[in-house]
Amino acid sequence: MKHIKLAILLPLSLSLSLGMPVLAAGSNCSNKDIACVSGGVGSTEREELQQQAGQYTLWLRTAASKSGAYLADIKVIVRDEKTKAVLLTTTLDGPWLFLALPEGRYEIEAHYHDKATRSDQIVKKISDIKKVGQRQMMMYFDASNVGELIYKPAS
Fold first, then answer.
1. Distance between CA atoms of residues 141 and 99, nearest Å
2. Distance CA 34, CA 103 (A)
3. pLDDT tens digits, one per residue of 72-125
């Protein structure tokens, strides 16, 4: 029982001592400088993530351009726009990524691999993060057969 309590309290206490957001849903992708969480698979997880959204300065969502279906397994690289220094590299566990970036200008680069067509796509965007508020960003990819309903009548 003590081990279970420690498993629950340790991440909370570390998060509070490091000044990082407390993570309730999704997967922690934080490094030593930037707190982040990815996820959003299923409505329950999306609701939990939305409740913590105010703790983050950037909310990135990934989707298929034709259908709007959410995409996961996207590799995201965050760079300082001026120096081009890589601040974070992560692969999304769901279609949403929340980042606690300090004030500044960032290049967000997302890589999608379409398994059906064996093609790679890269989308880059620039975001200005302010001290107050949250920026939202959508990244769309040409994803084959994602979110398409294929109807086959019974014979």
1. 21
2. 12
3. 999 999 999 999 999 999 999 999 999 999 999 999 999 999 988 899 999 999
| CA 150 from centroid of its chain's CA atoms | 29
Distance CA 136, CA 119 (A): 27
d(CA 100, CA 98): 7
The two tokens of residue 150 are 């294929």
* Ordered DSSP codes for 34-55: -EEEEE--SHHHHHHHHHHGGG
Residue whose C-alpha is closest to residue 74's, from 48, 52, 96: 96
Q: Give me Rg for the CA atoms of the chain.
A: 17
Which uninterrupted H or E stretch holds 2?
helix 2-18
pTM over 0.85: no
Nearest CA-CA partner of 76 in 64, 56, 57, 59: 59
What count of residues does the chain have? 155
Distances 102 to 44, 53, 144, 152 between C-alpha atoms, Å = 28, 15, 36, 51
Residue with tokens 């206490």: 13
Cross-strand pairs, 86: 79
